C-alpha cells in the first residue's frame, strides 16, 4: 500500500465523523505524506558571501538524490543547513511532518526557531561525513552503541545486539573491538555508516563519503551505500563519483554558484545536459 493511499483513508470524513484536523504544517506541503525531505527557498550567507541563493527540492520516501557540482558551489553548506549545523538565513526544511525554521536574533545572527524540534529532527537525520568523525577513544562497537543508548534510550544490551547486526551489514564484525586509529579509512567510513544507521534515521545525508579514501577502499563503501539504496533508504548524497551517482540515484541535482542549475533523472542529466555549465562540468570530471 502506498503511503498516499493510507494517508488518504486516514484523513477521510464520514457524516458522523468529521475529518481529523491536521496541523497547519501538514495541510500545506505534503498532505499525503509521500515526502521524506523537503527543502524550500534555502538561503545562506557567510559575511558578504551569499553561498546558497534559494535552494528548493524534495525527496520522496525511498528516493536517492545525488548532489554534484564544482568545489565551492555550496554542496556541503546545503547538507549542513539541512540539519542546522549551519543555520540558514531564510527557508524551510521539512523532514516528514516536522518543519525547521530559522529566525534572526537582534544582532542579525540566524538561530533555530524551535530548539526542541531541532533535536527531534536531528534524530531523524543520519549524517556521514567525508572524514568519518568517529570518536577516536571508542571502539567500533562503542561508536555505534553510544547514541541509541543516550539519545533513543535503548538498553545497552539491545543497542549492542543492534550494533553487532549493523557491523555484520557493513562487513566488519571482526573489527568490533578495534579503535578508529586501528582501522583503514574505508573501514572507518563503514563504521560511520553503521553508526548513522543505528539511529534508524528517516533520511541519510552523505557528504562525499569516499573522497578521503584510497582508491582501493572506495568500492567497499559504495557497496554498502548501494545496498542501502536497494533497501529503500531515503538518501541525499553529495558525491564526486559520477558513475555511482548515475547508478544509484533517482534524481541528480547539479549545483552551480549556490543555485540548482539543473535537476533531473540521471540518464537525462548525464547524457543530455541542458545547461552549458553542466556540460562543461561533466567534461571536466568524466
Ligand atoms: N563556515 C564558513 N565560513 C565562511 N565561509 C564558508 C564556511 N563554510 C563554507 N564557506 C564557503 O562557502 C562556499 C561553499 O562551500 P562548500 O563547502 O559548501 O562548497 P562545496 O560545494 O561543498 O565544495 P567541495 O566540493 O570543495 O567540498 C565556499 O566558498 C566556502 O569557502
Ligand atoms: Mg563539500
Main pleated-sheet profile: 6 strands, mixed
Gap between N and C termini: 40 Å
Mean pLDDT over the residues:
90
- Quote the beta fraction: 15-25%
**SS class:** alpha/beta
Radius of gyration: 20 Å
Alpha plus pi helix count:
11
Based on DSSP secondary structure assignment, what is the total number of beta strands? 11
Return residue spans where pLDDT drops below 50 for at least 5 consecutive residues. Answer: 1-15
| Series of H and E elements | HHEEEHEEEHEHHHEHEHEEHH
Which of globular, elongated, flat, extended, rod-shaped describes the shape? Answer: globular
Portion in helices: 25-40%
Q: What does this entry show, briefly?
A:
The protein contains 11 helices and 11 strands. With 286 residues, the chain is an alpha/beta fold.
Overview of the structural elements:
The chain is of the alpha/beta class. It contains eleven helices and eleven strands. It has helices at residues 3-10, 24-29, 75-82, 115-124, 140-150, 156-169, 185-197, 215-230, 242-248, 266-271, 276-285, and strands at 35-46, 49-60, 64-68, 90-95, 98-104, 110-112, 125-128, 203-207, 234-238, 251-256, 259-264. The longest helix is centred in the C-terminal third of the chain and has 16 residues, at 215-230. Mean pLDDT is 90; it is low at 1-15. The chain binds adenosine-5'-triphosphate and magnesium ion. Residues 46, 51, 69, 71-77 line the site of adenosine-5'-triphosphate. Adenosine-5'-triphosphate is lined by residues 46, 51, 69, 71-77.
Amino acid at each position: 500500500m502506498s503511503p498516499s493511499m493510507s494517508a488518504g483513508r486516514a484523513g477521510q470524513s464520514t457524516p458522523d465523523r468529521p475529518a481529523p484536523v491536521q496541523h497547519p504544517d501538514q495541510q500545506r506541503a505534503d498532505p499525503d505524506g509521500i515526502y521524506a525531505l523537503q527543502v524550500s527557498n534555502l538561503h545562506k550567507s557567510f559575511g558578504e558571501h551569499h553561498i546558497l541563493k534559494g535552494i528548493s527540492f524534495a525527496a520522496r520516501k525511498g528516493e536517492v538524490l545525488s548532489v554534484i557540482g564544482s568545489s565551492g558551489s555550496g554542496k556541503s553548506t546545503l547538507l549542513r543547513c539541512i540539519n542546522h549545523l549551519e543555520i540558514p538565513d531564510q527557508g524551510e526544511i521539512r523532514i516528514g511532518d516536522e518543519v525547521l525554521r530559522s529566525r534572526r536574533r537582534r544582532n542579525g545572527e540566524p538561530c533555530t526557531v524551535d530548539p526542541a524540534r531541532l533535536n527531534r529532527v536531528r534524530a531523524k537525520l543520519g549524517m556521514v561525513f567525508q572524514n568519518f568523525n568517529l570518536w577516536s577513544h571508542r571502539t567500533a562497537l562503542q561508536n555505534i552503541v553510544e547514541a541509541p543508548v543516550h539519545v533513543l534510550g535503548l538498553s545497552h544490551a539491545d543497542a549492542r545486539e543492534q550494533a553487532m547486526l549493523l557491523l555484520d551489514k557493513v562487513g566488519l564484525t571482526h573489527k568490533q573491538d578495534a579503535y578508529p586509529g586501528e582501522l583503514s579509512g574505508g573501514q572507518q567510513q563503514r563504521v560511520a555508516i553503521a553508526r548513522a544507521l543505528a539511529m534508524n534515521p528517516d533520511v541519510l545525508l552523505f557528504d562525499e563519503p569516499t573522497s578521503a579514501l584510497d582508491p582501493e577502499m572506495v568500492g567497499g563503501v559504495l557497496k554498502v551505500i548501494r545496498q542501502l539504496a536497494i533497501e529503500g533508504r531515503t538518501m541525499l548524497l553529495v558525491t564526486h563519483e559520477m558513475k555511482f551517482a548515475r547508478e544509484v540515484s533517482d534524481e541528480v541535482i547539479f549545483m552551480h554558484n549556490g543555485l540548482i542549475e539543473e535537476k533531473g533523472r540521471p540518464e537525462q542529466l548525464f547524457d543530455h545536459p541542458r545547461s552549458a555549465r553542466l556540460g562543461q562540468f561533466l567534461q571536466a570530471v568524466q
